[in-house]
Amino acid sequence: MSSFEDVLAADRRIEPRDAVPDAYRSTMVRQIAQHAHSEIIGMQPEGYWITRAPSLRRKAILLAKVQDEAGHGLYLYSAAETLGVDRDDLTERLIDGRQKYSSIFNYPTLSYADVGVIGWLVDGAAICNQVPLCRSSYGPYARAMIRICKEESFHQRQGYELLLTMMGGTAAQRAQVQDAVDRWWWPSLMMFGPPDADSPNTARSMAWRIKRHTNDELRQRFVDMTVPQAERLGVTLPDPELRWNPGRGRHDFGTPDWDELKRVISGGGPCNAERIERRRRAHEDGAWVREAALAHAARRQEGETG
Amino acid sequence: MSWPLYEVFVRAKRGLNHVHVGSLHAPDDAAALRNARDLYTRRNEGVSIWVVRSDAVTASSPDEKDAFFDPSGDKVYRHPTFYPIPGDVPHI
Ligand SMILES: [Fe+2]
Ligand SMILES: [Fe+2]
After folding, report:
1. A293, B5: Cβ pair inside 8 Å?
2. Residue B74 domain-assigned?
3. Are the beta carbons of B5 and A68 separated by less than 8 Å?
4. B65-79 burial string, b = 16+ CB within 10 Å, else e?
5. Global pTM value
6. Given this model, what pLDDT does residue A9 score?
7. A27, A65, A132, B60: least surrounded by Cβ within 10 Å?
8. Residue A1 pLDDT more than 50?
9. In a domain, B20, yes or no
10. What ipTM is given for this predicted complex?
């Protein structure tokens, strides 16, 4: 097992088929699968607005963004499979609730401004989380993250541009943007996970270089990045404790409702049941297509050989 | 009964080799190629794609890594730096 530790100590990458501790493998599978599921479920809140987009231009942008998220899910399933798991099995685990996905996607998208706020805040938080993962110790995961991060920048910028446009519109449009910010701000902060004190696996994940920064470090980084963007946009972040702390050179901010995070993770969010049900239906309704494609492939091969 | 796994290789532009970019599932070769285009080249990342079924790949085993690559380890005379040449010899 010493070669595993040597590779980590030298900050090099673990590759498929290397001998690794069982716990490293299972942690990696869980993290990559959970990440893949998040990308796939993450298509739903925004996908809802594709048929309701206000212009052909916005519709094309949103379609491309949601298609990217599907792609992210597939890159990640592909990385998970290098650890010897089966993709169909991962889908089953998502559908029957044995594996989780990001709590953020259990909130509803109530207006078109939500599409902009998701791009700005949710994809923005995802970028904060994901950039350090481009140096994750597991090679296939790190490479998938590099590909994903390249695409995320478009996601965040299209969201912010959408919001700038709405803020330049009517009073009602500005109110929609503020309302969306009010609803998504705290759930976005929760995307970084529980506070460090309640995150027992962080130390081991950092030692294995699966994680590069703690949840609280990343959350702080996100707040510091976002505050000036909110000012420029002309919206108020819904946190009375949010202020610049010159002593720390960073922003102080309030505490997210951790009970809410626990509740949403364990199935009690506003849309948990709906998201999983939709995924289950898509999987089951698509079964005949998958079978027909296989039957077609088999028939064609018979034709070639016979 | 699920779709087989394919490995995907993309040539980013003329003059470069195809490089492995990941894998995907598809019912047959033709569908694998189309899926690879949609999945790995949504932003002009490639001018040519190869797909090959993963079960058709023969790979060296990481367990025998040292023994397998040993034969090239002790042949320093395969490298140009093995040969001392006086500094006043031009262009060599
Ligand atoms: Fe994504
Ligand atoms: Fe995204």
Report:
1. no
2. no
3. no
4. eeeeeeeeeeeeeee
5. 0.94
6. 93
7. B60
8. no
9. yes
10. 0.90
